[in-house]
Amino acid sequence: MSIEIDILNGDAAWPIAQPLLSAVWGRGAAEKPSWSHVKWAHADLRVLIETPEDGLVCHVGIYFRTITWNGQKAHVGGIGGVCTREDRRGRGYATMAIDAAVHTMRANEAVRFAILFCEPHNVAFYEARKWRAFTGDIYCEQPEGRARFTDLAPYLFDIVRAPTLGIIDLCGLPW
Ligand SMILES: CC(C)(COP(=O)(O)OP(=O)(O)OC[C@H]1O[C@@H](n2cnc3c(N)ncnc32)[C@H](O)[C@@H]1OP(=O)(O)O)[C@@H](O)C(=O)NCCC(=O)NCCS
């Protein structure tokens, strides 16, 4: 079976990604998540995995941002919106798409580390892929102003080196 992995501009690829994201998290989703009030950033790039038989089966959004860690600026990559079509899970698609996202970040020499935010039930998935818990505090922007972000757990991945402690300010909307 052939698969195609594309990395496209985030806004341009939104119409392609949107039906899959809606199926996983939209109104049709089984439960409203606890973080449904959060205003999210839009992905800069999107990894899309498609097969000739099924079309789009997996999506990962990629974000680039200059954040601060303990007040020092650092350029980081983010991933978000990681999802695989429900009936096509367990085939390695998300692993492949995350690898493609990390590869894309590595190609950007300024990126020091990668950040994602996940629900407790997905922690084991990311820990098995060498993402590590960040035990410090995360701040971000929301429409009402700067706020501490506690809705999801931060996990970091070494590109050069990721911190485990301290204060990260995302300097913008979360992803
Ligand atoms: C999590 C998700 C993206 C995985 O997609 P996938 O394409 O099935 O992932 P892969 O095929 O690459 O990896 C599957 C492996 O991860 C494991 N896995 C999947 N979800 C897991 C979880 N929540 N915790 C621990 N392991 C998990 C599977 O058991 C499988 O293990 P195996 O390879 O030993 O059989 C998919 O289940 C999904 O879309 N979930 C809903 C959306 C979501 O929660 N996204 C994460 C947002 S942070």
Automatic annotation (TrEMBL):
Entry keyword set: Transferase
Domain N-acetyltransferase, chain residue ranges per copy: 3-166
Xref: Gene3D superfamilies: 3.40.630.30
Transferase in keyword set: yes
Molecular function, one GO term: acyltransferase activity, transferring groups other than amino-acyl groups
Superkingdom of origin: Bacteria
The name this protein goes by in its record: GNAT family N-acetyltransferase
Source organism of this protein record: Bradyrhizobium rifense
